[in-house]
Write a structure and sequence with these properties.
The chain is built from 5 helices and 7 strands; from the N terminus they run ββαββαβαβαβα. It is α/β, with parallel strands linked by helices and 196 residues long.
Length: 196
């Protein structure tokens, strides 16, 4: 898919603020510093559409990005960031659950994890949670450029074991610096729309 049009639409914190049309949405879920904004910017080849920050936990709203008037990427607050109060974390969790469980537009979930590190307990719990829902999903392994090429299979095996996967076929290594892995991810997205 060639991206001709990409726009930030709205930041929302509750259901009645979401866009009111029926455009399908792909949610991006991951730890606070996993690079969701960088993923959006690289995959659509726009350098500054999604605001990136050196401060993990900066995304505190659900952000909607419309692509080609065909679908949206929806960036939800990152999980696992320690430097916020317990009440703030609970509010974010409620916001994320409301979106995932009640948003009819939601058609697919990309769970982003850092390829450099074995999946954390929170990563495993999020994977199991999404896997329990009736929503297609894929695991995007970010920061691919930060590991050596000859280490890739070893790192993939971390995720196969940590997430109890039968194969590594559902893992998509990706680099927001180089764009490596973008084509495979677009195949997943295009495949969904072809089926529709």
């Amino acid at each position: 898919m060639h991206v001709n049009k990409a726009e930030f639409e709205i930041s929302a914190v509750k259901l009645n603020q979401y866009p009111s049309d029926s455009i399908p949405e792909i949610a991006l879920i991951g730890r606070s510093n996993v690079g969701k904004s960088s993923f959006i910017n690289r995959i659509i080849q726009r350098s500054k559409l999604a605001r990136t920050s050196s401060q993990p936990g900066k995304t505190q709203t659900i952000n909607f990005y419309k692509i080609n008037d065909l679908f949206r990427f929806v960036d939800v607050p990152g999980y696992g960031y320690a430097r916020v109060s317990k009440s703030e974390r609970q509010a974010w969790e409620k916001m994320i659950n409301q979106y995932i469980l009640h948003r009819e537009n939601l058609q697919m979930v990309f769970i982003l994890m850092d390829i450099r590190h074995e999946p954390s307990t929170l990563d495993q719990e999020m994977y199991q949670y999404i896997d329990s829902l009736d929503i297609p999903f894929a695991v995007i392994l970010t920061k691919l450029d930060k590991i050596k090429k000859n280490q890739l299979n070893k790192h993939l095996s971390y995720f196969k074991k940590g997430l109890k996967l039968p194969t590594t076929d559902a893992l998509f290594p990706f680099s927001s610096d180089t764009g490596e892995g973008s084509e495979d991810i677009w195949e997943v997205i295009d495949g969904y729309f072809d089926e529709e």
